[in-house]
Specification:
Elements lengths: L4 E7 L6 H11 L4 E7 L5 H6 L5 E6 L5 H14 L4 E4 L11 H6 L5 E6 L6 E2 L3 H18 L11 E4 H4 L11 H14 L3 E6 L1 E2 L12 H15 L16 E2 L12 E5 L2 E4 L5 E3 L1
Length: 278
């Protein structure tokens, strides 16, 4: 098994897509490990994953804990299991696996790679209001935060685990679009090379979008938070021991040991959501 790359896919009610997606990934990328983080979908996702044996790891969470904590869980899982790179993508085929090899090609210790709708030759299936909100949102975030990247909100990405080890995870206690922008904001502050690979971003293959409309408003407000912290965020990164996460605390509820700091001395289990004071 390739210990260099881990592909993480968060799921919630994606049984219509997940088997087909995994099969397509394995047909294109050999000896890869896939991590599925499933928010208790109450569908057939769990049984589908079992068919793939040890090639696919399933973390079944007891309730819907959100996309944000799922992505942070994947980051810390990659650190814990000594992967070099973490690839994240959606389960609904909006991120076509055919681009995986192109993204992986540019992975590097100090590189961040993203599948971009808005880079030269990139495309998106969005139409109408969704299209213009997406274009405007990414453009405003790029200019407002002075980040030389056209795509900030999609999660078709390759992270260097070397960079993930430095993140202050208490600053990533946000959801949806906000987390997507914050991670790139931090990576930019680390001085990483931001690389965009043009993709055709497709609308959902099956099922319905699960992103709450309120997240658009909270993401706009979050831009002001980042702007206010723009000059101080560099001092928050960790170069040695990172106290903003723990892989040693044992959860009394689910017996897992992947925790992130949410507030001073309060760690959250990213598998079941239980808080623990340390």
């Amino acid at each position: 098994m390739n210990k260099k790359f881990l592909i993480s896919i968060p799921t919630y009610k994606e049984s219509e897509n997940i088997e087909k997606l995994i099969k397509k990934i394995f047909s294109l990328v050999k000896n890869i490990k896939i991590l599925i983080i499933n928010d208790f979908s109450d569908d057939d996702t769990k049984n589908i994953i079992k068919k793939f044996g040890k090639k696919v790891e399933l973390i079944e969470r007891p309730k819907k804990l959100g996309l944000g904590t799922a992505h942070i869980l994947a980051m810390l899982y990659a650190i814990k299991n000594n992967y070099k790179f973490l690839i994240t993508m959606d389960a609904d085929f909006s991120h076509d696996p055919k681009y995986l090899n192109s993204l992986m090609k540019y992975a590097g210790k100090n590189n961040f790679v993203i599948g971009s709708r808005f880079y030269k030759n990139g495309k998106s299936d969005y139409t109408g209001l969704r299209k213009y909100i997406s274009i405007l949102g990414n453009l405003v975030a790029k200019k407002f935060l002075n980040i030389n990247c056209n795509e900030l909100t999609t999660y078709f990405r390759v992270y260097s685990v070397n960079n993930l080890k430095k993140f202050p995870y208490d600053y990533l206690n946000v959801e949806g679009y906000s987390l997507g922008v914050r991670t790139i904001w931090m990576i930019n502050k680390l001085g990483s090379k931001l690389i965009e690979i043009p993709i055709h971003f497709k609308d959902r293959n099956k099922g319905k979008s699960k992103i709450p409309k309120l997240q658009i408003l909270t993401s706009v407000l979050d831009l002001f938070y980042m702007r206010l912290n723009d000059s101080s965020i560099k001092s928050k990164f960790f170069n040695d021991k990172n106290y903003s996460y723990s892989l040693k605390i044992n959860c009394s509820k689910c017996k897992n040991n992947i925790f992130s700091l949410t507030k001073k001395n309060i760690y959250k289990c990213l598998v079941c959501g239980k808080n623990r004071i340390k």
